[in-house]
């Protein structure tokens, strides 16, 4: 399927409109909305739809989506049939449909005057402000926010304190203490910690909430490993593998723990991240390869130690995406998209408790 990225003039300069327009419609998508939905939700900073899969599994209907990244928009539309709106900062909160639950995996940003008790106004210029203004206008029954674990100590705790003050004091929601949830406790072999923030509208008189308990199901890399022989392009070259070994040796000599990691079949992955050594921190041994002929341009030969990167599909499984999720972008975009995504099982376990609180009576 061909896509067109339209351009628009902004202050006389042509810029991407950040919207992908398909030339053909999708007649069938992997993740369709249930006909008999229980609640409505919106999906902000949606990425490729990790929140949406979880919420639809709980009989939710998505009524609005926002995602600025063009490649992520393409993946989202291919899997859900909806083209996400673009830059959330340019969308009027009054134009967003009414909904029951607001979902947002918003980026963590510093607040210029965080901690000075400016409340709602402290957050202006950050993407959290856009979440807050939508909550203020639309008054959803509940919200579910996700962020990196580092938010806990960001700016010596001032950033999180400001966020909670806005949600509790300015917006008037009941917000239990946030909790750091590890994806490895919810059925995926990845050590991925993220902070979850849940809130309920005050008139609902909900005054307690329990985050989900670890499921106790151990899943290891072998459970999600590719069943068939992996394309040679995922195997490291001898030159690059030696470079990684020297890099780690230098750091180890200085007492540092930096360097590549090889995940055992019965082990769990490090948190998958975008950039840096994101892929190299999650290398694996796979001795099923028989043809060492390079399929891409590399320096030297394919290594004979059977060391390879995980595939995008394996990264998808590390995040709990079902195999029915269509990967329609090049690997470079796929790694970024899954690395930036939420871990679906952890999101769904928490969302299930939210929905039970809202609709248990």
Per-chain topology:
Elements lengths: L2 E8 L2 E10 L16 E6 L5 H8 L2 E6 L4 H11 L20 E4 L22 H12 L3 E7 L9 H13 L2 E2 L4 E4 L7 E2 L1 E9 L19 H4 L13 H16 L8 E2 L5 E2 L12 E3 L21 E2 L3 H7 L12 H10 L3 H16 L2
Parallel strand pairs: 3-4, 3-5, 5-6, 9-12, 11-13
Antiparallel strand pairs: 1-2, 6-10, 7-10, 8-10, 13-14
Helix pairs in contact: 1-9
Summarize the structure.
By secondary structure, this protein is an alpha/beta fold. The chain is 27% helix and 19% strand.
Number of strands: 14
**Radius of gyration over C-alpha positions, nearest whole angstrom:** 22 Å
- Can you tell me the CATH architecture of the largest domain? 3-Layer(aba) Sandwich
**Unreliable stretches covering 5 or more consecutive residues:** 1-24
Relative helix content: 25-40%
| Tally of contiguous helical segments | 9
- CATH-defined topology of the largest domain: Rossmann fold
CATH class placement of the largest domain: Alpha Beta
């Amino acid at each position: 399927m061909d896509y067109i990225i339209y351009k628009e003039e902004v202050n006389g300069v042509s810029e991407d409109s950040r919207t992908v327009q398909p030339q053909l419609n999708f007649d069938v998508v992997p993740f369709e909305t249930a006909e008999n939905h229980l609640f409505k939700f919106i999906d902000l900073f949606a990425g490729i739809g990790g929140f949406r899969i979880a919420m639809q599994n709980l009989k939710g209907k998505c009524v609005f989506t926002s995602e600025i990244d063009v490649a992520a928009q393409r993946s989202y539309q291919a899997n859900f049939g909806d083209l996400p709106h673009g830059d959330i900062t340019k969308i009027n909160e009054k134009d967003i449909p009414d909904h029951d639950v607001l979902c947002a995996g918003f980026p963590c940003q510093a607040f210029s005057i965080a901690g000075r008790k400016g409340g709602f106004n402290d957050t202006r210029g950050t993407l959290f402000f856009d979440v807050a203004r939508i909550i203020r206008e639309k008054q959803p029954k509940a919200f579910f926010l996700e962020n990196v674990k580092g938010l806990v100590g960001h700016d010596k705790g001032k950033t999180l304190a400001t966020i909670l003050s806005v949600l509790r004091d300015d917006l008037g929601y009941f917000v239990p203490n946030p909790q750091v949830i590890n994806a490895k406790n919810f059925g995926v072999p990845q050590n991925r910690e993220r902070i979850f923030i849940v809130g309920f509208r005050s008139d609902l008189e909900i005054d307690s909430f329990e985050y989900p308990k670890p499921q106790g199901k151990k899943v290891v890399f072998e459970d999600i490993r590719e069943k068939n022989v992996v394309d040679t392009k995922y195997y490291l070259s001898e030159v690059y593998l030696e470079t990684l070994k020297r890099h780690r040796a230098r750091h180890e000599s200085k007492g540092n723990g930096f360097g590549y990691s090889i995940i055992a079949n019965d082990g769990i992955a490090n948190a998958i991240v975008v950039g840096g050594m994101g892929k190299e921190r999650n290398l694996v041994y796979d001795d099923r390869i028989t043809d060492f002929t390079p399929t891409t341009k590399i320096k030297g030969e394919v290594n004979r130690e059977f060391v390879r990167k995980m595939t995008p599909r394996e990264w998808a499984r590390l995040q709990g995406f079902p195999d029915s999720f269509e990967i329609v972008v090049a690997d470079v975009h796929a790694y970024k998209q899954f690395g930036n995504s939420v871990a679906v099982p952890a999101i769904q376990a928490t969302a299930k408790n939210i929905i039970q609180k809202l609709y248990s009576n």
